[in-house]
Amino acid sequence: MTKPRMAAVDVGNDSIKAIFGELEYELNIPNIVARDTEDRPVIGIEELDAKEPLDGIHIKVHSPALKENNLIYRVGNLAAKSNNAAELDPGSSKSEEDQTLIMLFAALALDAVKGEFPRTKNVIDANYTLGTGLPLREVKEGKDAGYRSKLIGSVHQVEFLVTPKYQGLKVNIKFNEVKVYPEGFAAFINLVMDNNSKIINKDLIDKRILIQDIGGLSTDIAVIKNRNVDDDKAQGFNLGVSESLEAIREEIRSKHGVELDSRRDVVEIITRKNDRNHIMVKGSRTSVHDITDRILLDLAKKEYRLLRNVWSKNSQTEICYFVGGGSHVLKDYLKTLNNNLDGYNIEFFEDDKESIWMMANAYYKLITDFVRRTEKQKAEPVKS
User: Fold this and answer.
1) Per-residue tens of pLDDT for the chain, all 384 residues
2) Domain locations along the chain
3) 114 neighbors 25 (Cβ within 8 angstroms)
4) How far apart are CA 13 and CA 217, in angstroms?
């Protein structure tokens, strides 16, 4: 059997972030799927292979882990253009949604076709050691075990249909091992450990820390004491940025008649460096500041209330780190609120990529450490 390839995958509500092998390949795909037919129309079919695979992910997915099996999907950028595009709904559980698995399998298949695994005609047999995670709330409910069991012990197949460069290829995915980490703990590991399991932030090791991870569908607040997550005090909330992004998208449509493809389009309008909070309406540059400010400030107030409540129950906390894509969106609003109100010691990651990729990087560090320790144990002589 081929040596398993390491994969660290963060199936975020906005997008999936994945790191493979020895950091040699990264993927970032919008978390959007759309049901489709086998023969999607392509203008200029003979030029299909000149296009970028990530812009034309068209797959059939077979897996016993899926509630609805053997269906065909557009994924990512291609799905965003569909009338029936689906994004994860507020209140849903990441561990129980078919969409989570479809995105995971698609990302792994896109890595597998790059030549790491043996190929027999058009079939690739891929074997992975996977590090991934779930929101704290779902882990506390014990859903991590069920999620892991869906993946281990089965073969999951992705067939590329009308996808540039990969049309006709099938990838059989097996998992040698799956580690499912609570997202709050993973964020702490990313803060204090490098890729070689060495401590990089010694001053944080023994501090009392909160980590507020704001995602699309949920917010996790991890309470770190004595280098561990305090499971009793850590909390998960059904509050994320998705509903607010949908509200902005809907108000832009009703007020300006502009249809945005997905929540990711809204995020881009809010966060881009040039022309932030502006859209084009009939060819004219138009501000949507009034819409975005009102809706996002309201959400930031709710997130700040969560921080205040958790901090009051953990009064000896020294600092709170805001992480995740939602923190990136709400950063300016939360800073303003904090300056005008309680003045907590809070910290954001000014590097946008560092904040957005924090979970994937954390899973990479954790799964690398797991593999390293496992190999070391196997190499040690057995004591008689």
Assistant:
1) 578 999 999 998 888 999 999 888 899 998 999 998 776 766 555 577 778 899 999 999 999 999 999 999 999 989 988 878 777 776 678 888 999 999 999 999 999 998 779 899 899 999 999 999 988 888 888 899 999 999 998 999 999 998 999 999 999 999 999 999 887 677 777 777 777 777 777 777 778 889 898 888 888 888 888 777 777 787 878 888 888 998 999 999 999 988 887 788 888 888 887 888 888 888 888 888 899 999 999 999 999 999 999 999 988 999 998 988 888 889 999 999 999 998 999 988 766 677 778 889 989 999 998 888 888 887 776 565
2) 5-182+359-379, 185-240+293-358, 243-291
3) yes
4) 7
Q: What is the C-alpha to C-alpha distance for residues 200 and 184, in angstroms, rounded to an integer?
A: 18
Count of positions (residues) in the chain: 384
Q: Residue 345 is which amino acid? A: N
- Cβ atoms of 250 and 243 within 8 Å: the answer is no
CATH placement of domain 185-240+293-358: 3.30.420.40
Report d(CA 294, CA 10) in Å as an integer: 30
Distance of alpha carbon 133 from alpha carbon 178, whole angstroms: 10
Q: Which residues pair with 181 in a beta bridge?
A: 133
What is the CA 12 to chain-centroid distance, rounded?
2
H or E stretch including 36?
none
- The two domains 5-182+359-379 and 185-240+293-358 share their CATH topology (first three levels equal): yes
CA distances (Å), 381 to each of 156, 370, 373, 376, 377, in order? 36, 19, 14, 10, 9
Query: Hey, what CATH topology would domain 5-182+359-379 get?
Result: Nucleotidyltransferase; domain 5 (3.30.420)
**Closest residue by Cα to residue 307 from 227, 216, 206, 239:** 239
